[in-house]
Description:
Chain A is an alpha/beta fold. Chain A contains 16 helices and eleven strands. Among the domains of chain A are: 264 residues, Alpha-Beta Complex (Amidase signature (AS) enzymes); 76 residues, no CATH class. An eleven-stranded mixed beta sheet of chain A has the order 1-3-2-4-6-5-10-11-9-7-8, sandwiched between helices. Helix content of chain B is 40%, strand content 20%. Chain B has a nine-stranded mixed beta sheet. Chain B has a three-stranded antiparallel beta sheet with strand order 5-4-15, with no helix packed on it.
Amino acid sequence: xxxFRLTAHELAELLRRREVSSYExxxxxxxxxxxxxxxxxxxxxxxxxxxxxxxxxxxELLAKGEAPSQLxxxxxxxxxxxxxxxxxxxxxxxxxxxxxxPYDATTVARLREKKxxxxxxxxxxxxxxxxxxxxxxxxxxxxxxxxxxxxxxSSGGSAAAIAADMAIxxxxxxxxxxxxxxxxxCGVVGLKPTYGLVSRYGLVAFASxxxxxxxITKDVTDAALLLNELAGHDPMDSTSxxxxxxxxxxxxxxxxxxxxxxxxxxxxxxxxDPEVEGSVRAAIGELEKLGAEITEVSLPHxxxxxxxxxxxxxxxxxxxLARYDGVKYGLxxxxxxxxxxxxxxxxAGFGTEVKRxxxxxxxxxxxxxxxxxxxxxxKVRTLIKRDFDQAFEKCDVIAGxxxxxxxxxxxxxxxxxxxxxxxxxxxxSVNLAGICGISVPCGVSQSxxxxxxxxxAPAFEEGRLFRVAYAYEQATEWHRQRAQYVTL
Amino acid sequence: MTQFEPVIGMEVHVELATESKIFCxxxxxxxxxxxxxxxxxxxxxxxxxxxVNRKAVEFTIRTALALNCLINERTWFDRKNYYYPDxxxxxxxxxxYACLGVNGWIEIPVGDSVKRVxxxxxxxxxxxxxxxxxxxxxxDYSLVDLNRxxxxxxxxxxxxxxxxxxxxxxxxxxxxxxxxxxxxxxxKMQEGRLRFEVNISLREAGSSKLGTKVEIKxxxxxxxxxxxxxxxxxxxxxxxxxxxxVVQETRLWDEATGETRAMRSKEFAHDYRYFPDPDLVEIHIxxxxxxxxxxxxxxxxxxxxxxxIEELGLPEYxxxxxxxxxxxxxxxxxxxxxxHNPKAISNWMMTEVLRELREREMDxxxxxxxxxxxxAIVRMIDEGKISGKIGKEVFQKALESGEAPEAIVQRxxxxxxxxxxxxxxxxxxxxxxxxxxxxxxxxxxxKTIQALVGQVMKKSxxxxxxxxxxxxxxxxxxx
Lengths: 488, 479
Ligand SMILES: [Zn+2]
């Protein structure tokens, strides 16, 4: 049995029955990483020794029948923008140098407490700015389905690691689609929780009002298991919501009777690849068969989402990234005076896309432009939120494509940032509205690339996403296609 | 020649007396080893988040209420973006768009009357760290100490309502007193707890047209602020008198030269790109919270003065002098708590203690003699253990050495002699050495009795119980 191919819930069952140890699972995953990593390049750091040590500790608890969670002993990959105490955290940026945080992100601390096993830190676009992981300051990650293609981004490392069975579950972060888009491109499940559901403490900030950590997994059940551990109020994060978190596995059922699914007409227009549209429409037909009522809705301000996003997100980023100046930690390029030291350090440490966004954001906040750009963007953001409120009066979940096309080729869009930005056109508005969305596999294209179905629900209604996504997944075979197509 | 008058506004920065910093749990203690009062949050490490200290918000509400401000029921923090190595995040969390308190006022004494200075706003922010410029020869670096980074700071911004250096001083003194009274800060200027920025312009006397304003930063005491205002008035009037124009700019006070100089453009940002901090949520201050803070305000100056008159039986004058500074009043109250003789202690405060404070340029809480020590001196006098004269000597000695007054009296054998035998010997000697005085007393001259008592006291080096001396002289020389 190839343990690394199993899901977390399958492995949890084996662990519970004592048929396998965490140590064996971890070793299997580490061996798989050693074999596949040179082809896919999903990891920035692999922490093998630490992982085996954590596995031993998990096994002690499992042996006593005291496993605190279904994820106890399960190998987890962590996106490299989440601080890990004692382990290099780079954000895929040269500017962080050899930064080793003396603290855990809250999400990391929670997984550590539950004795999950950390196998490594995954690659990403630098500071999570990008849609292909080509903006990594370390190296690009390749799509396990087709190594000539990108895995999506910014959580491309996590999605590729899951698609290539180099981890059992992974965490990602999603500011404008950075979990859902790579999940769709890699044929796995990715969920962006409601803003405030998961603590941001220790997540290296890109855009504070949009960033959210979430699970990237092989199936919907695993996503629910991982979200169970990640979600919950954190007094260290002022924007963390003080809400009761249900056990998300309780929503996993096979019946969709009475569920109203809304199709936003704006998500099925120009620019949508016909193959993607075909797969998504077929998936909607499947939902109808499962008992869902299909209805058309409208999100009239969606055409402004990308522009709004690139003002809000870059404005916040320009300020969030100001702290990387060579004074306290990370890279320092010396100079005769402090101003030159700042500018030389930042010139050398940040990549092109990060610089582009810092400049854009600085501009949007500048005197004379603040009202016209930043403030205007905030107003449009309110309108986008209102669109969703109105749509959710008519439906329980919204369904549509996660991305306009399947995964593109390496280098295909690097010369044209605008075209790259448009690959997040369907995911971005969910972040702007602060609500939740999930991407699940719903097809494979002619060129053997996975296609993702996006489901969107109102704030703190992750339960609805799990209900619909799970019913769909169980009724179809798409989540099993990976094994057939990913042959590394 | 044209006469100019100044138009002065002030920004006063006050470090709040909270135990912990504004956005993390670090201590705000002063004078610790560099960078020991820090954590990932106040060091601005990647991914950390601020959580606001509720006490700091409450102190700001308290200040805003005491300054008669309107409270913004919905207030929030904005980021003020600029690069400086003592600012770990390269932005300061401050308030710009919805300051906690706005449109207030404070009354300051001007001559025999009072003048109302308008307060534009009171807002809450975090303090920066400190750059330590090394004195080592050849050193081409500066050091950064972030202990102070994240200490809660309020900024009180006045309107340009002060028309002279004296009014500016009255404003600073009145404000400092108020801040001490409401217990939001200990206002220790030597520790940088209270800092000033001045904006000043000149206009032709009698004109209502405002001149060009100059801002001066980096003023760490009232004295400096005053010197700076006087310097700027002179500098600007010289420019104007010679037909020149004052440049609108930010200037820095240089303590060494006693002058202000223009800051280089790189030393300050022109555009702070304020925007609401997305890491923090709006603060709601409903009327109920404002009322709660109002109810819990410490006793203010007026109430204290009335209490001193009504409960402690002090004369109006004493009560006014003692309550002029909260620290003096606190000293007085501690002394009275240790020994209940309000009027006698008040007399000591009004003379000895206040004189010492003036001479030493100190606040009462810094006096080496603690209030309990003063109480002990008054008690020993009341109990007849020492004379009033010895009491003053002990007071001086205790101030020099910091030793407890009782211990000084013991060690130096200053206890008053009430033993009739010994005192009688001194009296007899004094009578025989001053026969003409004795004669006058026998002739019924009451005044001479005091003079002869003085002679006996001198002989005993102040130790004889003056009451006993008086009695013995009367016994021996009258009737
Ligand atoms: Zn701290």
